[in-house]
Structures
1.
Amino acid sequence: MPELQPPLSCPAIPAPPLLLGLAGFGTVGAALAAILEKNKAEILSRTGREIRIKSILTRDPAKPRACPIPLGAHLTTQADDLLLDPEINVLVELIGGADTAGELIRRALESGKNVVTANKALLAERGNAIFSLAAERNLHLGYEAAVCGAIPIIRTLRASLAGNHIESLIGILNGTCNFILSEMSERNLDFAQALREAQRLGYAEADPELDIEGLDAAHKLSLLIRLAWGLEYPYTDMPVQGIAGVAPRDIRNAREFGYRIKLIGYARLGAGESAETGGMEAGVCPALVHENFLLSRVEGPYNAVRVEGNACGSLFLHGKGAGGPPTASSVLADILDIARGDNPNNTGFPLRRQLLPAHPLPDDRCFSPWYIRLTVRDCPGVLRDVSGILADNDISIAEVTQKEDAASPPAAEQGLLDCIPLLIMTHSSSVAGVQKALRALENSSFVQEPPVHYRVLGRSNVGTS
Ligand code: NAP
Ligand code: HSE
């Protein structure tokens, strides 16, 4: 057996520190500075170099901060202090919004600086130009923090699952909405109280309408579709429904049927479609998720993504989706890639590959089971007429219940004389069929209020996890 030789030792030449220009010192920016200080020793041992914040851009330098200004860093209101400083290697953009942030990132890339951002709204709106510029300059554009906070879904799709054909993605992509729905469901908080609490805890966007209208989840979904299939599916082309209309009585009804209401983002290629043909069903909406599924147990500000690939099978990633430290954890992961000198591979596809367009599948090719709540007149023949309209549109009923919600005022007190709620769970039916049936029901003489309907994630459409 050959004798083992001791490894050649070379004198340690300390790598120069990686200097950051931090734009934004709010929830995520301050958490990043705090973790950089707290985990200094681990970071140095993993990268072999120090990572320091050199300049911090804010609007108001006098504002009290959640974290002390790091030693040696200076606070500024001048973007040029970051962009024109040749010592700064990385711009970390954590201000949010499209205009100022977009301009900062463009100028940073043009001046040869790597960029790390958590700004999903910007990447969903203007990602093509930004990713192209980063690719032309061979620079990092890290955005792990832009989707699902601490969950490493970007690198999972870009790297770990790169050998798979991805069949579907489904997830809880917005921490604020999940927190609000959990608080309404578990603690009986009302919507406005729960939203205020989400804002106080730093989960919500500066404009919380982006969260509650489902747009933030749609921004994230368009980024995931780009990574999973190399397809461009503008979030503006997706059906997007937020949670503002989710009534406490539907949350209670769902529980009685054995479900939880969650805001979900979903994407899958249609039957017979490929990444080349691009026929895809994708969107964001509140849905009833069966309590046997892991997704139904994702609570508070947590997010989760379930990916189905043809080799990996089903994968479930779960973790904190919003808040300063979890988001800063992902920002830091991208900064560490840069510190280690990894090659940039921002989109997971060759630099010059054009994104192909996704084509939304027509409504008669999109299927789901449904929950439908009707307020109907309490008289003979109504159930027959309702089931007739559903049958005419190829909708088969799985379960039907006729009952008052104990916590809601009786229908009579709401000015709806002789009315009762009818709750229907259907088998899988097309979006086109359900929309047509709901129009017919709404126009009928026996339905007294606009019908409420949500998708259902049940055993027939989501496997078992
Ligand atoms: P935030 O708490 O509102 O902080 C924003 C920071 O940016 C503040 O320090 C603010 O300065 C600064 N800023 C805003 N506009 C500016 C301008 N025009 N010029 C200079 N500075 C400006 O926001 P955040 O929650 O940290 O979010 C930052 C980014 O991370 C957003 O893109 C957001 O979507 C994303 N994100 C947030 C979370 C989360 O859980 N919060 C999670 C994932 C991703 P002042 O302090 O002086 O006002
Ligand atoms: N406002 C976002 C959310 C922050 O609630 O999910 C994380 O992206």
2.
Amino acid sequence: MGAFKDAHGGALRNLYLDADAAEAVKRGSGGRKSWDLTDRQLCDLELLMNGGFSPLDGFLGRVDYESVLTDMRLASGVLWPIPITLDVTPAFADKIEIGETIDLRDREGVLNATLTVTDKWQPDKRAEAIAVFGADDTTHPAVRYLHDHAGSVYLGGKVQGIEAPMHYDFKHLRDTPQELRDRFRKLGWRRVIAFQTRNPMHRAHQELTFRAAQAAEANLLIQPVVGMTKPGDVDHFTRVRCYEKLIGHYPEQTTALSLLPLAMRMGGPREAIWHAIIRKNYGCTHLIVGRDHAGPGHDSAGKPFYGPYEAQELFAQHQDELDITMVPFPNLVYSESRVQYVAEDKIEPEEKVLSLSGTELRRRLQEGLDIPEWFSFPEVVDELRRTHPPRHRQGFTVFFTGLSGSGKSTIANALLVKLLELGGRPVTLLDGDHVRKHLSSELGFSREHRDLNILRIGYVASEITKNGGIAICAPIAPYAATRRKVRDLIEPMGGFLEIHVATSLEVCEQRDRKGLYAKARAGIIKEFTGISDPYEAPEEPEMRIDTGELTPDLAAHRILIKLESLGFIK
Ligand code: PPS
């Protein structure tokens, strides 16, 4: 076979020490430095230790790293497309000597592994992004991760496994490569075709996988990624419940479901080859590669990062070297006249095709609208509806911003009462003054402290929103960037409405209900918003309220109408 098999005979790595040796390493950890693994590093470590990343036996050293970037191969010549690196902070790296062994721990402090450091270097992240992902464009999630989250120094070296990362969920669906290989052997499955997915599976996916398995005369392994996928994807808990429902739609005893704790990079063609090597390690003989495999979507110019069949093409070029066979698959679309799914390229010019985009599916879920049976199985849709209730049952946050004395609190209170009158969801008011008393009493009004204050409010509001409640926030929140962070925190959890109470400084100062403006002018209160501290007015709030024109009652009423039009109240 090809170089991959020659290099290590197709054998699985198992980096775990036996129980006694692991115990001894744990006891000796007193003098060693310790690195707290990020979520992504923990995913990578799990697959290094259990052999999912065979033939790797640790985090890449510099020579291997550079060779992976330029040639898609380890220095030994073995095909390996994605750099598996341990990124750390410069402060941590400075303390580490080459040859030193360090502990690798999860966020609870559990000792998962040790790393004997052979390499330490500062990577050229731009070069890495271009070599691996094709562009240094932070619209690509892995490029964004590389620049915004990954540490600036890489450590390389061999790993010794002490303890596998703990998973409390779906234990019955988690297998190591060795366990899956053993299961296939026990079941007599000699040909196994793997299907990789990070999305809920609908009828088209079921058809595609079933037909691919038939064509390859193989049993089917559905192996969804549950480590890290593309930000914004449906959470894995919901997806796995959907897959469990779907599995009943295959002929009995032909199909297995097993979860893969992989941290995807959305690296398209390179990622397809990586997925193949991993699936081979898990005992599969075939891998389905569809349209736009592991695609990250569009770049900052609005163009797709990779061509639709680029992953299939790169795979085909390396097929001889890979001890697993690609089963390329075109997109399937639903033909109304044939009442079945048909390969996209087999559709006649006049044939009517039904389709439902991801955006349309989300809209229908949000609005509680029908999702047709040709598109998905009713049990799968029910499962999706449980975690994606229609908007009128989701939580939301109304975030007021405006100068001191602009009328935020008065309108917020009016809105609170009107929402309580409507009933159905708990409502919490996080007013500026109240928060400063109960949540942020130690904070002042420097930019740093204001940001902390607003992020705390954002955090509490996001929890309320996530749990289906209503949060009304009414701080000054003078900085646009901080408000943006709060929006980013809350929007994935439910609704977010920014409301600018746009009362002018002159009017606020004229009213001066608390006498604060007079004190600010006299220099008694420092850093006072509007007088001696900036206020950045929102450019595109969901609503702007001019309290010169509207009474608080009417303002609150207008907000209710807005909420109704968005579907958040019925
Ligand atoms: S911030 O910037 O969002 O953290 O401010 P916030 O938490 O909303 O607090 C604003 C209330 O604190 C009083 N106060 C000040 N405001 C602005 N600047 C300075 N220096 C200041 N010192 C005290 C003021 O009463 C604000 O209440 P509201 O309800 O906005 O009038």
